[in-house]
Design brief:
The protein is an alpha+beta fold. The chain is 24% helix and 26% strand. Bound molecules: zinc ion.
Length: 247
Amino acid sequence: MSDVDRPWQITQTTGVEPGATTGGDAALARLPEREEVLDHLVIVEHFVDDATCDQLVESHRRFGRLDATSDNALGLGSLRHLDPAGFDRARSVLARMEALIRSRFREAVGHDHAVLCALTAGGFQHVLHADNAIVICPQHGSQPEQLVHAGCSCTDIRVAPNHTPWRTHSALLYLSDAHTGGHIVFGEGPNVYGRIYRKELAPVHGLLVLFPSNELYFHHTTVVESGVRYSMNCWFTTDPDHMSSFA
Ligand SMILES: [Zn+2]
């Protein structure tokens, strides 16, 4: 089989057994190559057109909140009756994301959760995290920022499922340019996960960032300096029990 026929199945956690010695240079050597990790960080400019971006932002403006203390997530399910046209628009975007995951990762997924988000200037930031896994160090704990701050390079870390281990793919679709800051940064994760690659992206409208939900894709956002940063954040799963029908 060619590499194309045998895609790298990195969407679950890398399956490290509890207690296994996984940190340090030995673990780094066992991780995928930088190019391979970056190849699965899918970046698509103009995934949706300008009108769709504007209309999705408008749905949040009408029905969402703009608090400084949260990402003001507006669940798409809540739009079903409030804003049927906006709901249908978002659903069609979700369907296109699922099709892209099928073609790019060869995995049949459904969406688990999808929200429209708005980050305000000087307000809430998404702190360093991965979407389906945590890294635990016996000495430095399991808070990713604390592990980074402590310079954890311990060799006895382990990877464990987080509170949403069924998520396999994550998609961030950016909807507006009327802000500065609010970049998304990958590859500054804890221990070996901060040593493979680094990728910082400035959100612009229509930009899609799609990636496996696991520990190879730790990410965080930088502070929004001005304006409001709108996005549609979506998570997908191969587990039928966790697929949403917005029922
Ligand atoms: Zn440590």
